[in-house]
Amino acid sequence: MDSPDPLFIGLLIALAGFFLFAYLLVRRTLLSLREGYEDGQR
Fold first, then answer.
1. What does the alpha-carbon distance between residue 27 and residue 15 come to, in Å, rounded to a whole number?
2. DSSP string for residues in 1-42
3. Which one in 7, 18, 30, 32 has a CA-CA gap of 20 to 30 Å to 24?
4. Nearest to residue 40, comparing CAs of 30, 24, 32?
5. Which band of pLDDT confidence, cut at 50, 70 and 90, is reported for residue 42?
6. What span, in angstroms and rounded, lies between the C-alpha atoms of 7 and 24?
7. Is 30 a residue whose pLDDT tops 60?
8. How far from each other are the two terminal CA atoms of the chain, in whole angstroms?
9. What CA–CA distance (Å, rounded) separates 28 from 35?
10. Where are the transmembrane segments (predicted)?
């Protein structure tokens, strides 16, 4: 069995990095929204 295609591995790494970036962006947005909402309640 030959080694996997380097292009395929690069694509997988790029996809994983994109999902990680999107997760962190959404998490930060939700946290700041909740923080702003709690500040508004006071």
1. 18
2. -PPPPHHHHHHHHHHHHHHHHHHHHHHHHHHHHHHHHHHHH-
3. 7
4. 32
5. confident
6. 26
7. yes
8. 64
9. 10
10. 6-26
| Spatial separation of the C-alpha atoms in residues 21 and 36, rounded to whole Å | 22
Token pair 């069995």 in the structure block, residue: 1
- Sequence length of the chain is 42
**Vertex 16 angle, CA 28 and 34, to 5°:** 15
Residue 3, pLDDT above cutoff 90: no
Q: Six-digit token pair at 16?
A: 């994983």
